[in-house]
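note to self — DONT lose this again. spent like an hour looking for the file last time. sequence + predicted structure for the chain T wanted, 185 res
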Amino acid sequence: FADLSEFGYGVALLNDCKYGFSTLGNSMSMSLLRAPKAPDEHSDMGHHSFRYAIYPHTGTFSESNVVQEAYQFNVPLLELPITIPPQISSLHKRPFFSVSGARNVVLDTVKRAEDDKTSYIVRLYEAYGGHARALLTSRLPFSSVCKVNMLEEPMDGPGIERLDHSTALKVPFKPFEVVSLLFTL
């Protein structure tokens, strides 16, 4: 996406696959195709399919829902059938993980851990370039949680704070930081 905002209002150009944007004054454009002849003389040839949308909004970029709208436009919700273990079958009508308390934090990924099929990775990121302290709530009864890197290896340093007797965590974020958490059931 690209956004052009001023105090009180703005407009975002959303798309599902293009990265070339330019803005000059009050004009914004999106490059749809490039046709370079080197190093690949057949680059960008053939049929192309893409989607785009114009999203006007009130407020500045950081006050708007541009990131959420762009994410939903770019990554539509996918429903996959799963087998729910009996101990958590009563939880299936609510989301397994939710984020609150920080509008600038996006819950991006929930997936099984690569090396431990009884654990889950939850990946979040800060989207607006500011510090945040988000409340991450799990509906799954987990025994432990730790911060991991992209290779799912445990990390040292300041971590997360588990609230007493709950499945909620306080997770701190630096500007544009990606945080991956390993939940062990």
